[in-house]
């Protein structure tokens, strides 16, 4: 096992090939099962429900699963940073991942077994999610960090290479060969991904877990909140206490909203209360902690605000595998085509847009005197997602009026949403790594993944709202169907988020936290 980088002279580390290969297979595995999950639930596993309830129930299951996938990065990042290191955590979580796939293939008609499989996949996929990208970043230092920016784009490209073939093929396997085969093939690819990752073990740069640090992020926040200065109030402490009380009090609504929604809202209240309170009193940590630790903690909190403002984007993006697939089933299409296959457009366009942006669009903008910084790109990406949902909402209005509409019309919103994805997700991946202090790489990358959890929380809340008779009555008075109204609502949500993100980004100062050597 290597702890010395193999990149003399600023060369590309050879071990990157194993990580990229692992990611391509793993992403085929994940998207292969994820993209057929909603139609499988509607047509097979949820047949015991009345027909009118299946679609909403399937969307709830899908988005709850996604919430789990993007929540467990918190666990994976913590285990890797504090105990086992990134390599060992990825390897063992990958085996859990494989077991989850096996459950899906075996228990296609057993709800308990199938949902157990989804839980294991959420744990395994979520556990490795923040680590593979940051482990790849560990293979670089400042001598070749310019190559890291290219490799992060290649990393995102290979994700979509795997996703493209999974999205194209798995709906066909589900239709022609059944769920056992359609869920079994992704399981096989996950096993191959695990083997490929293991093969590179002797070449990786493996940074050790971070030992207990008296100046860690959590300790700096605790000092800032609890330090009392004579004659000064402690408003930050009371904000933090309020956040904790709101989080705990929210569990009284489990019976109404369900455990997943309440737990996610509690997490939001906890992070917002403690983080916001510590921000107000951060200067009180100086003297008890080095200035670098205090400045680092403040910068992490600033990064978390950036992350929070991207959550509306993810609430829109992940619905292409649920709401958009359901809409596709209401449109006309050839008999050999399945609505879930439209999702293949997304990774195909990503593979085209990443090189186009890097080789054509960004150089052109620079020649015109406009620097497409990471935060400017992310602002535009959130706005493009809002435009995509205005278009898809317009298509729904036409469908609701009874006019036949070809599924080809979905190409336009897919193109807009994918352009937004490249600007937000591909950019945010490298941005999150570069802004994270050395001792917080895994955890900060976990918070980046948590944005998707919160994004899907907004979807569950919207679904819960439309089960209320008063809400649906108000929607009916607009002349729109519930589905169309939700689509325009999410569009407005994203456009407002883009405005807030752009205003905040203008005051944000980026930092460089790559290793010095």
TrEMBL record:
Its main location: membrane. It is found in: Membrane. Gene3D superfamilies: MFS general substrate transporter like domains (1.20.1250.20). SUPFAM superfamilies: MFS general substrate transporter. It comes from the Bacteria. InterPro entries: Dipep/tripep_permease, MFS_trans_sf, POT_fam, PTR2_symporter_CS. It holds the Pfam family PTR2. The keyword Protein transport applies. It is a multi-pass membrane protein. Keywords: Membrane, Peptide transport, Protein transport, Transmembrane, Transmembrane helix, Transport. The chain crosses the membrane at residues 28-49, 61-80, 87-107, 113-133, 180-199, 236-254, 260-280, 300-317, 344-365, 377-399, 411-433, 445-465, 485-505. Belongs to the major facilitator superfamily. Proton-dependent oligopeptide transporter (POT/PTR) (TC 2.A.17) family. This is POT family proton-dependent oligopeptide transporter. It comes from Rhodanobacter soli.
